[in-house]
Amino acid sequence: MTVELRVAEGWLTVCELSELTPGRGVAVLLPDGGQAAVFIDRSGRTYAIDNRDPFTGAAVLSRGLVGCAQGRPFVASPLLKQRFDLLSGRCLDDEGAAVRTYPVRTAVPSAAVA
Description:
Layout: E1 2-7, E2 10-16, E3 25-29, E4 35-40, E5 46-50, E6 65-69, E7 72-76, E8 83-85, E9 104-107, H1 110-113
């Protein structure tokens, strides 16, 4: 199984599902030169958000701490600790800030289907 993100060019394969560890993120380089942070939770659901912390400009959200607040999964920036909702990208600590989210799916590689 592979993890794919929806980008302007279509679905982009970013890694094997087995390469993700619950509670930890991975950074992914995107075709436009940007970065996404990809996460998997303990139930196997995958999430992807922009890797750039809007408060510092550093590409570090993939190294943040994953948690849950009021039933919503979030990642806390490793720098200033602001929490970003993994579903909406909204900052839980500052209503004026948010990060982009990416549609994400798991898929069977096309070579394995044949």
